[in-house]
Structures are given as C-alpha cells and as structure tokens.
Protein 1
Amino acid sequence: MQEKKFSRRDVLKASGALAITAFAPTLRAAAPAPTAVTPALIEAAQKEGKVVWYTSIDLPVAEKIARAFEAKYPGISARVERSGAERVFQRIAQEYAAKIYAVDVVNSSDAAHFIVWKRDGILAAYVPEDVAKHYPAEHKDPDGMFATFRASLCVIGYNTNLVKAEEAPKSFADLLDPKWAGKIVKAHPGYSGTIMTATFQMARDLGWGYFEKLAKQRVMQVQSSADPPKKLALGERAVMADGNEYNMFQMKEKGDPVEIVYPTEGTPLIVGPNALFKNAPNPNAARLFQSYCFSREAQQLIIDFGGLRSAHPLTKEKPGRKPFAEIKKMKDDPAGVEKQAEAIKTRYTQLFRV
Amino acid sequence: MSATAAGRVEGRRWGIDLSWPILIGFAAILCVLIVLPVSWLVYFSFTDRTGALTLDNFRRLLTDPAFVDPLITTAIIATTSSVICCLLAAPMGWLVARTDMPLRRLVRPLVTASFVTPPFLGAIAWELLAAPNSGLLNQAFRALTGAPRDEHLFNIYSLPGLIFVISCYTFPYVFVLVANSLDRIPGDLEDASSVLGGRTWVTARRVTIPLALPALLAGALVAFLQAMTLFGSPAILALPAGFHTMTTKIWSLFQYPPKPELAAAASLPLLVLTVALLRAEHVILGRRGYSVVGGKQGDPRLVRLGGLKWIALALTLVVLLNPVFLPYFALVNATFSKVATQLVSLSNFTFHNIHFVFFELSTTKLALKNTFVLGVLSATIGTLIAVVIGYLTARKAIAGHRTLGFLATAPVAVPGIVLGVGLFLSYTRPPFVLYGTLWILLIAFVTIAMPAAYQQIQSAYRSVHPDLEDASRILGATRLQALGHVTAPLLRTSVITTWCFIFVGVMRELSAAIILFTSETKVISVLIFDLNESGDLGAISVLGIVMLLITFAVVMLAHRVPTLGPGVRLRDV
C-alpha cells in the first residue's frame, strides 16, 4: 500500500539493533527501579506455584525455556501457551474482553503489539535487574513495560538436496524467477508476527509490487514462520520465501539439508519483547519468570539451543553462525507496523487469496 | 391406560410429584441450548455494530469475491464428495450385507474405524502420505518409476486432494445407512421374486436395490452436509493451496480484528441449506415405510458372487486403505521417525516425539484432562437429557412433546462452526458469561451430540412396552421413579452405547471448540490443530495415536454391549 507514507520520525525508533552494544546505563524517570531476584520474590512465586507464558516462539524452544525455569526454581510450573503472534494477540484481546485473565507473561514476535497493550494500560511496569544493568536503551521500553527478550531475522532458505548453492536465490528479487514457480513455501502475516513485521519492512523497502509478483509463483502457504524451515527440511519445497533464521540454525546444526540466504536487499529484523500484565493471575511468579528470561543464563540458552539472537551484551554468539553485526538488516519499526497491520493483512489476503 | 391416567391425577392432587417441574426444567434446558445461540446468530447477522437493523452484512457476502468464491468452492466440494461417497459406499454396503464376499464381517469394524477417526487427523496423515514432494506415496512413486525429483503422483494440497480426504471420512455415513437398510429388508420379498422365476441378479436389481434406494439418497444428503460443514480438513489442506471454504472463512473472520457480525451472516447460508436438506431427507425417508412392511422376516438371502468375490474383496480393501490403513501407518511411522516423512529405520528411529509430548509439551496434560472431563460430563449429561426427553416423547407424557422432539433433533441442522459462533455470541455477554470456562464447551458438545443420542434412546424406548411402567405407576411410583427403576434399567445397553458415542464425538470435535476455547480450556483436537499450524508433525502423530487409542477403547466398550442401533450418527468436526 502506501510505501512512502510514513515519516522519518516513525523510523527513528527503529534500531540498528544488536549491532549496537553500547550500554544505556541511565534509567528514564518513568521506569520503576530495577528488581533483583530476592529470596522473598522466589518464595512468593513458589506460593503461587505456576506461571503462564503466552508466546509465539517455536514450541520446542519455548518449552525448553519453561523447563529450564522450572529446574532453576522448583515448585513453580511454567506453562507455555504457544501460537502465532497475531493469534496470541487476538487470544489476549478476546480473553480480556471477556474479563478472563489467564496470561502472566507475554512474548510476541510482533513488537507492535506492545505499543497497543501499553496504550491500553494493561501491562505492568517491571524492570529485571539484568535489563536495567545491561540492556541497550533501544531494547527496553522507557517506562519499563517491556524489553527485547529475543531477536531474529526473517530469512530466505533452500534445501541443499534440491538446490545447488550456485543456483540458490541470492535476493528477494531472485525468488520471482519463473524457475521457482510451485517450489516456494511461505508463512502468513495473519498468523505470524515475524511475517507481519517482515511484510511491513519488505513492502516499505521493496514495494508491494514484489508481493504481487510473488503471489503468482504458486507458493505453498503455511501459517507459522517456524513452518517453512520444517517444510524445507522434509524436502516438501525447495525454497522458502520467508521463515525463522533460528529454526534454520537449529536444523543446520542438526544436520538437516537446509541453508540460509541473507537476501542482498537486506534481511527483515524481528524483535520479540517480553512483558507482564497488570492482571496477571500469578504476579510474583510472573516477575520471577520475567527476571529469569532476561538473565544471562536464559539468554545464552535461547542462543545456544534456540538459535535466536540476544540483546544481552554479556552473551556470546555461537561459533559457526554468521555474526549478527555482519548481516545487512532492514530497519525495524514497530510503530509503523502498528499503524498498518490491518491494511497489510487485507492486502496480503487479496494477493495470496487466503 | 385408565389406571395410568388415574395415577397421574392422584400425583397431581397430592402435589408431591416432582416429575412435572423436573420435566419442564429439561424442556427449558433444551430451549436454552438451541434457541439462544441461534437467536443471537440471527440477531448479529441482521445488525451492524451499533445494533441498527441492516442487510449490509449479507450484501457484503454476496458481492465480495472473498466470500463468493468460498461459497462456490464449498458447493463443489460437498456435491462431489457426496457423489463419490455414494459410488463407493453403496456397492460396499451391498457387498457386506447381501453377498458371500469373504471377510465381510471384518469390513464393518474397519468402516467403524474410519467413522471414529477424526477427519482433521486423517487430513494431517494424508499430508504425510501425499504432500507432493515429501509425501510417502510420492516418494514411493519416484523410487519405483525413477521419475525426477519434482514430479509427483498425488498433490493433497489441491481441491481434488481435499475432496478425496473429505470423502475418506464421510463415506462411512453412507455405508452405515445403506448396509443397515439392506439388513432390514426382509428375505421374503426376495424369496417371492425367486419363486416367480427371478434369478439372483434380477432379484437384486428389481427388488433389493430399489428398496435400499431411499437410504442411499438419505446417505447422499448426509454426506453432502458433512462435507459442507467440515472445518478441520479444509483448514489443513485448502489454506496451503491458497483457497478458502465457507467454514475456514467463517473461522478467519474470528481472527484479529474479529468481525462477528460477518461471521454470523456467513453462518446463516450454511444453516438455511442444512435445514432445507434435512427437510428433503425427511421427505425421502418418510416414504421408506413400505420397504419393511411384512410379517415374519426371513433371513436376507446372500448373493453368490462366485469368482468375483475375490475381486470384490480386493476392491473393498483398496477402498479401506485410504481412510484406515495408510493414514494409521503414516502416523505410527512419523511417531518413531526423526523425519516425519522418512520411513523408520535403524538410523532414524527415535523416542524423541513421545518424550516431547509427554515430558516437555506443557499443554499435553491440560488438554488431555480437559478432553477427558468434557467427554465424561458431556456423555453423562447428554445421555441423561436424551433419556428424559426420549421418555417424554416416546410416552407422549406432556403436552408439547412434539416440540421437544423437534428441539432435540434441531442441532443436526446447526453445523459445528455455526454453533460455535452462536455460542460465542451468546455466552460472552451477560446474563450468561461462560466463555473461558469448560461450561461453554460442555454446552456445545452436549448440543452437538443431542440429535444422535436422542434418536438412539427414542428408538430404544419404542422396544420397551409401557405396560411395565404402568404397573409401577399403579403401585404408586411417580413418573420419575418408574423411569428410574423400571424403564432405564431395561434400556441399559442403549444408554451405554449412547454414552460411548457422545464421548467419542467429543474427542473428535474441532469446529465448535476452535471458536470457543481459551488457553485454560484447550482440548486435544485444538492442540493438534495448533501443532499443525507450526508444522510439528511428530508431536501431532503421538497425540493423534493417543486419541485413537482412547477412542478405540471406548468404541470397544460400546461394542461389548450388544445391539448397536442403526441411525447412530456421529457429527462432523
């Protein structure tokens, strides 16, 4: 739609992301004082006994984090409620409209959702110690409502058994080659926050013309951005037009025949914050879980096991993966996504028919 | 009879008979179950967001290609599936009921297996089998013929693929109706034909088949309705192929930003069409009376197929490969394979999927528990209501019993997803805020199960003569006591069968649950659907097999009890 409509100011908040490792030691006035994990907090959380985390991270990674949390804090069970970010958003809206407060902590790959939730006044301000001490300013909300739990990229990929490296697409434009017709798998922005964010950035940088042409390539339309990598690994399709970099890392390292392509136009950057709700049914367990999520330990886990990128400066990238700083990224702009989400879904549905 | 009347008067005079208030209570429950959601549905479809009357929703439906296309697609799917089901199920029903085909007693349990397999699970299993590139069958095809990599024999992500999978899990409805009707046709009529000189084939063609035709037509209608209202299979197979059906469209209207008024309006055509078709079924079945008129029934006469019987058996087994053998094989294979679409071998054998589902996936326990609780509660409450309502109508116990019977069968006309929308609209606002609790799902499941349960129980009542109840009433029992101590025990087998079928129906239900669930009230079917959206095929296979095992255990329980009455109809999912 309106590729050029938003202003520079909108893009201002966009981060060059994790490449910037500068500290932002000062806390804005509005954010509450950071909270350390104290024995009192642990005890209060244990009394509640459980925490419910709505997230859009691929299920095995999400469950891994939950199990690691349970192992560290015995007596508190962490339940993962996973769906696509757009579904999670809808679920929370529907539940809150019916005054059902089931969610403690939320994570979404569509950072625009946090703008909406914050504006609706349903988030609780809470700043884990690690966030206050270590996280760069562009990865935390000035009012202490949320911070970047994870980051990743929405990449192109191919199956190495089906496509030779030299014939593989190098750019988004390459995907429009007729030779890929019927061979592409692609996820859906109405389900996945990653794809919603990526669609916004690509429509902005490449124009909707790209999607109009891609829609004529007879793509296999799946829902989750975690699914195209899985379809590649099965050999169901040769190429994926979009999908999670982190699933690709996991699969590659496991020995699956998949390879990542960082498109020459730039790779969409996906930032996935975590937040607590004011009406969380288990407020103390929620805080403890939020603190755990931003600990160096958990952040290293999402890198090593999950293949995700972390905003925690004390974490180490896993060797063998392309360093985040070396990748040309598209600028993320949650505020822009928030304004256009509905228009993007409508336009996308018109083009791809589902 | 006059003694009964006297007893009734007596009861009333003393004012101690609680029967009436309780019976009326049940009637009220039935009204709330069905009338409330349908009223909200109609209200929403004719109003805009401010509550003003409008036809705008329907205008949008009829002018926007995004709605018209799914409507046409759905019509094509329903018609072709129905025709395919009849073409397959009618000869099979005849072979099983009326010929000396070998192993024919084995066919019925196999059809029952495809009957109780959740269609969405079948659709996922067929993804494993016939996805164009990774599907097991296509891999086998390439291995056998040496065809190049991107060539395929089957593409399940297509309109024909979807019709095929829907037919796989719809044909049992036609089969059961046809086979049961053939069972009931008395041998005398065929004997008469033979006596008059008709040979085997002439008798079959001139007597048996015409007598079974009404059942076949009824089967065609039921298959049409099933195919039209199915949600899971099209959501799994049509969306990747880039098209919608009405049910997936209605469901997509619940995605953010939700448009309940459009969803309601889109539901109405399904509702109206279903009512019209059921009316047609009624008219057709209404004529069936002549077929079973006759005195003492002779055993049906079996047609000798001679050498053809082996061909018949082979064809029957080929048909049954599709809904049962192949999908089950694919699910078991995916359970133990590291790559869902690779055949299990020593190098890729794994217990990881099982471990993941039972020890890592945190919703497994919750979903299993919810499903189990809902299954038991729905089956118990549903059976109870069916027993009481069936009693009232079979014994014509209160004025308006006809209306009650109508209400109990009415949900047949409400497709699961439409009921889901109606219940959502009814129970997310005062005075009844039930959304977010298991109650709303319970209401949905009981409502969906009611028609089959009611028909089952009602026909059972007809086989118990009212004399016994009358005797009990003369001796001073109230209506409820007579029902509880005399009639209900006599109906035990039917009651248990009904209970089991409601339970199995709950396990399979997806289309209403997908609209009504919350994170705390997730059921297995919804969990499997979630997992499919993120492509976790291994976990789905494990959960699917667990689901099938529970289902088979319950079906087996039902089969240990004799008499599985005809006309038991599981609903779609």
Protein 2
Amino acid sequence: MLSRTADNLYWLSRYTERADFVARILDATMRLAALPSGYGGERNEWEGAVAAAGNLDEFHRLYSALNEDTVRDFLAFSRNNPSSIANCIETARENARSVRTALTTQMWEAINGAWLELKRFNNAEMNREEFARFLDWVKNVSLAFDGSAYRTMLRSDPYWFTRLGLAIERADNTARILDVKYHVLLPETERVGGSLDYFQWTTILREVSALTAYHWVYRQSVKPWLVADLLILNRQMPRSLANCYELLVRHLDLIAEAYGRRGPSQRLASNMLARLSSARIEGIFTVGMHEFINDFVTENNKLGAAIAEQYLV
Amino acid sequence: MARAAFDEMTGTPNGHAPDGVRSAYADLKQWLDTSPPEFFDTRRSQAELFFRRIGITFAVYGDNQSTERLIPFDIIPRVLTKPEWSRLERGLKQRVTALNAFLRDLYGPQDCVKAGVVPADLIYKNPHYRLEMLGFEPPHGVYVHVAGIDIVRVDEDTFYVLEDNARTPSGVSYMLENREVMIRLFPELFAQHRVAPVENYPDALLATLRSVAPQTASRDPSVVLLTPGRFNSAFYEHSFLADKLGVELVEASDLFAKDDVVFMRTTEGPQRVDVIYRRIDDDFLDPLVFRPDSALGVPGLMSAYQAGNVTLANAVGTGISDDKAVYTYMPAIIRFFTGEEPILNNVPTWCCRDKEALSYVLDKLPELVVKEVNGSGGYGMLVGPHATKREVAEFARKLKHDPDGFIAQPTLSLSTCPTFVASGVAPRHVDLRPFVLTAADEIRIVPGGLTRVALKEGSLVVNSSQGGGTKDTWVLDD
C-alpha cells in the first residue's frame, strides 16, 4: 500500500483515540473538582488535566488564568491546541478523507458523521450539563469508530496500521497520566497521606476506564502501587503499557511477515515488551517511577519515529 | 392526619412557609424555583431511562403483572449538613458497637441477661436466638458486619432510630446508583455543592470482608457473595455489589463443603472460600441444620463455620439483635455495653408483652403504629390514623391473641423533603438508611445512606414494596 495511505490510517486512529482520552480526562477531572476539600487531596486538578491531556506551556501562552472554563476551552474546543477534542476530530476526518477508499463505509460514516455533528456544540453556550453530554458523545464517537474498524476491515496491512496508531497513542496517553500523577502512586512501604489520596487513585482508574476492572484483577481495596501495576504491567488491562506493547509487537510482526522484512520498529517494540514483561512494580519503584515513565515516553516516541521512517514516509 | 411535619427544606410544618429556607437547601430551592418545568420533565425521564438501561429493577412478590419494576427515583436530593451527619455518624458507631457486643455476650457469657438488661424469656424463647451459635465466637468476634440502621427525623434537632437491620440489609446499590445518575444529570449542582462522596462504599465493604477472614485463610482471602438467585427481589443489588467488589457471585449450588472447608466449583477445579457475604436468611443457609427443605443452602456450611474455616457475614443469629421487641431495650443495651448515654435515641415504643403497655396500646390503637415483632418490608403493620374502624378492630383481636408478637409506636410526624409528584413539587415524608460496616479493627460509614420517600400524600410508609421511592442523600462538606 502507499506510505501516504498508511500514514493517514495511522494518524486517523491516533487522533480518534486521543479525542476519547481527552474526554475521559475532562470527565474525571470534573468529578474530582466537585469533591469537598477533605476528599480531593491537592486542589490543582485542572492544571493536572492540562498537563496530562495537553501542554502547560502552550496553555499559558493562550490564557492568562487557569480554571475550569479556560481548561475546558483549551482541551475541548480550542483551535490553537492541536490536541483539543475539536482538532482531534477535525484532523482525524481530514486523514479519513484523503484515504476514503481505504476505509470501510462504516468507518467513514462514523468519523464524518462526528465531524458534521461537532458543529452543533458551541463551548460558549454550554453549561456543565451540556458539556457532560458532549463528553459522552465524544466517547461514543471513538467507540463507534473503533468498533467499525474492528468489525468491518479486512485483516491486512491497512487494518494493522490502524492498530499501530491506536496502540502507540494509548501507550502515550497512559504514560502521560502516570507522569502527572506519579507522586500519588507510592510504593507499599511509603504510607504518605494515607487514604486522603483515595479519590486521586480512583480518578486515575476512571481516566483509563478501569475502576471496576481494578477490583476484578486485584480483589482488594484500591492501593496506589497496584494502580501503578495495573496501568504499567498488567497485560489484561487494555490501556496498560504492557498491553499496548503486546498489540504493537503483534501487528508489527504481522506487517513484517507480510512484507518479508523486519526493521528497527520491530526491534524497538519487542525490546520494550521484553522489558515490561520482566519488570516488577517493586523494581520500578526502586528505580523511581518518574524516571521509569520519562524513559518510557522517550522510547515510545522513538518507536513512533521508527514506524514513521520505516513505513509512513 | 399526623401532626404537622418538619420540612427539611423550609424548616416549617408541611413546607408551607412561602419564603423560608434552611441554609443547606438555599441553592437547591433557587434551582427548583428558577428552572423551567420542561427542564425537570426531561431530567426525570432521562433518570428513568438510565435506571432502566442499567437494569436496576426490583421484583415485587405476589405481583405477576410486572415482575421487574423500577423503584421510583426522585431527582430532588435530600441534604444533610456536616454537623448533622457527624452526630449521626457518632451515634451509629456507638449503636453498632453495642449491637456487636450484645451478640457476643448473648452467645457467650450472657451477662446482660444476668444483669437484667433484657428479660431472659425475650431472648431464650426467641426463634432468632440460634442455639447453634452458643459458645462459638465467629472470626474476630464480629457479628454484624453490615448494618442498615433506619433513621427518622422529627424536627431540627431530633433524629430517632426507627429500626436496626442486622441480618441482610439491602438498598445500598440504590444509594450508589442514585449518586451516579445525579452526577450525570446535574453536574452543575455538584459544582455548586460540596457533596461528600459515597463511591468508596464497595471498597470499604471489601476491606471489611477481607479483614474478618478466618485465621486459616491465606493472606489473600477469597471472598464470595452468596445470592438466592435471580428470582430474588434484591438480585440486582447482589450482582451489582459482586461486580463492584470484584468477587464471584455464587448460588448455593456453586458451593460445597468437604471436611469442614467450603469450596466453590470453578473451571479450574474446587477453590477454597474464606469469607461468604451472604444475602440469604439464616433459615435457608444449611439444610442440615436449619430448614431441611431449603434448596438455597449449602449442606455442611454450618459445620465448616463452627470449625472456624469460613466467615459468614453477617454471622448466624444476628436476628436476635434487630428483633422489634429487643429494639425497645436498645437504650439500656447501649448503656450496658458502652458505658455511654445513647447518642441516637429510639422512637418511644410500647412493648405489648408488657401488660400495662398492652392496655394503653389497645386504648389508643387508632393513634398508634403497631408492628409485628417479626415482620419486615412494611407488611403486617397497622397505621392507626390511616386505618378503617374494621381494620383497627381486627388488629385489636390479633393483639390480644398474641401480645408478645407486637410493638406499638406513636404516629411520628416524619420529616418531609420536597419531592416531584403529579401536581408539581410537594413535601413528602422521608427516612434514612445509612450502612455501617464493622471490620475486625474499625467501623466504616460512608457519608449519607439511602433516603426513602413515601410518594403518596400523607403516607408514612417508605418501603419500596409498598410504593415508596428513593432520593440521593447529600452530606455537605467544605
């Protein structure tokens, strides 16, 4: 297939996944912000939302104050933030339009329909209730798009490139949450702050849609080091780093097999999967979670670059 | 009609004061006064749709027409202030501490009977006093792990305990789902009010259940929730809780006992079970010990329990502590076991087993509420002021025939809260059921509980089986 087509499919998936991620961050942050001060821990949840789902420097260039209204505008609607939900849907649709023939009808209609509907939503007029419904709508768009891809695409290289986009974006998103919140996820031995952080942990779980899943995996009450374990190392968990790399390795292998050639991206992906498979959460805490995540993000970006160089340009 | 009731929004009888509002309700009243009616109509139908979609339904026994009904949900929340809640919380902890100590004593040294705190025949002749539990202490000495204490309010400062539920209290799923639907429908209200969260209840319940695992259990005890099955009226709640806890939802046929150890049948072979959060009554637990015709029970379960190899939550035999006749002795029981004055009082109650009380009750029957000692769900009770002469006469006969079986209370003017009814917003009577969790080492209560509301005008019966509805309960914090 054309490199340009693969590139469009890859970014189409990345941006629909990112729209969903930003919506979940906003949703969970609204909940956290509404809690009484005795439950919310530190009161800088909106700043955390920008750090996880956007870029603080960029934010401060555009707005003089950081509060719910400006963050909502920046993350959901701003044309100046390339990762705002509106821009994600716009970019996804642009990519979809250029590869219309590589998409199934259902995929195209899911993303094009969303793009048309997006115009209905106007931030300035929206109260919190309407905004909450907007976020629900965004989550449904991603669900419909991803479901269409999964159910209707031929299992060949176009499909594999959509999976690569999805997985690398997810890994990046989960790592961003960990990067912003690592200080509330402490190893078992450090009981700082105690249960004051409980609602911070459940917010993290909500951001990766894993609140109920947590209990099924660990069968005990929410513990910060197990939240870290779930997000980083647990392979059953769709948004964990380990599961994202399992997906990446599998689909890069399928591509390599089909093309009869392996390259740097296969090597980088399987190295990272091997590292994640042999790692234990205690070990990650020993090295320092912040360092671990920083390192992961660098490696994940490297893989993104390698995929681009090997296939997309 | 009952006396004028305290309205929790306006602070006045029956909510008829035009402008008065208690400060906790100030923003809500404004919201009610200024939002257009269409707004509320849409939200109410959205709430109903939400409940239908998640499948939170309730089976009403003896009603073949619709075996799956929704409990009506009222979108106007019931609000408690932090000081009000703090007092309730202290009172609840004290009461449940006493309940557990009382049970430990009744099945152990029986000091409270010897000291005359409760009459001996009330205990020893009571069908809920389980001889099987004598001389056996359940793991960590906890009997009532999950208690639902029904509380009513009659004025600004007075809360009464109406009833203790120490067997298998239900309703907590409504507390949790009501909050979820409110957060979804009214994010604006939540941004305006600082509402203490309840979503950590499943987590607290799981921690409670794990803490009481028997000594023989591993460090990672296996917990299950035992349900009578999907025909039970509370099945939704059982499946909901099991899912939130991340534990298996088992029926009796999934379990078996061998050599005094309980196992569940799994695809990987038998797996040991350490803690059973059972939502089945004592009578049905084990056909070898209790009702032999029970198909809901596990043969050999009691023997495993007595051997100390499995924890039942709640313990067997807790029914003696929430018996309606024993209830009348609760203030004395609290004093005896905690050495403190009760923080939460009982509703003044006449125990008809007492001769003087009986003649008073017979005399004043049309003014009183009379309850069967062993009844539940609002069945088998007489609400004097609402009963016909014939019903009163019939009840008087029942009373004379079996005085031990009944207690009587004055018709309380339960507080009211603004509620949506056909004609608009009107005050309706409410009660409150907070859920109290007792673990091996601590007592946990999430702030709030389930508010039940009697939707019919003037009605005091809040039970869902008799047309009661529910509300979200907000404890305001800062």
